[in-house]
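[SOLVED] Predicted holo structure with zinc ion

Edit: marking solved, answer below. Original request kept for reference. I posted the sequence and ligand SMILES and asked for the 3D complex as structure tokens.
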Amino acid sequence: MALRDIKGHVSIRQLIARAVTRDTLPPCLVFTGPAGVGKRRLALAVAELLNCEVMANAAEQPNPDACGECRACQRIQRGVHADVLLIEPGETGAIKVDAVRAVVDQAAYRPFEGRRRVVIIDDADRLVPEAQNALLKTLEEPPECSVFLLVTSRPDMLLPTVRSRCPDLRFGGLSTGDIVDLLVHRHEFEPAAARAAAACADGSLAHALETGSADHLQARQSAAAVLRALAPGPNPKQRLEVGKELAGGRRGGKSSAAADRETLTRRLRALGTLFRDLQVVSSRGEPAWLSNADLVQELTELARSYDTERAGRGYASVDRAVHALTRNASPKVVVDWLTLQL
Ligand SMILES: [Zn+2]
């Protein structure tokens, strides 16, 4: 994968391309930031850029990037390039010292087939302390032709001695639009389901992919139905009816207490994104800020009933409700409380 094919992270991509042009890429880097935003993918793109046969003279290019098609690029994509080493947790969930010793030994030699040896350690927070210590000496005196990229969403789990030797590149979340694009073009989501999933994803493709595409769409439909039913400010009895509907299990799916709790949490998260969007609409914010941009017409109609203040209160209440659910509060109690707040 070339840098140009990575979604988001524009400034990080530019920084890396510039560093490669000037030959100032540090020999070790930590890629930090939320899970599921493309850190590992970008690390592999760096490996391609450094070894692409067409890009052999990166120093002469203003915007260097891998071709994605030469023998080296293809071998990296297939995971069989001898100089691009990917280490990740084994079955135990940990990265043990033996795995690190093996790459440290290799890193001392010149690359076999490429220009630079690139060692990518994914989920580097899973390195056991002994493995981190085994890595230290190499990070202190990195071999000339090797680059170490440590990828993690938990940099606090790395030893301070490791962190102090590796500059951080901090990744932010992806935009909703980028996530929709990835879901539709790489994960075969229908556009409507992709938008519903992206709206609740908090900038993480991994979050969007965690549940089935149909589940996201269903959750958003339930959440929108709640907003419509509560728009006129009904009496308490009607509110409890709405709550019952909201807390009901997924139709047509298998039902269990845990699954129902999961379904409710998903619906509430979707409701939260709709309230956030209603705040945007009722305060005449930019349409580009909407998470559910495809529902703009419905949101505009709902905004007549939900002004900025009501939408803000709704968002805060949903947030509290989701928090209570993750703390094992009873779904019925949470929903009954919530519907009276909205
Ligand atoms: Zn290439």
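OP edit: The CA atoms of residues 247 and 264 lie 6 Å apart. Thanks to everyone who chimed in.
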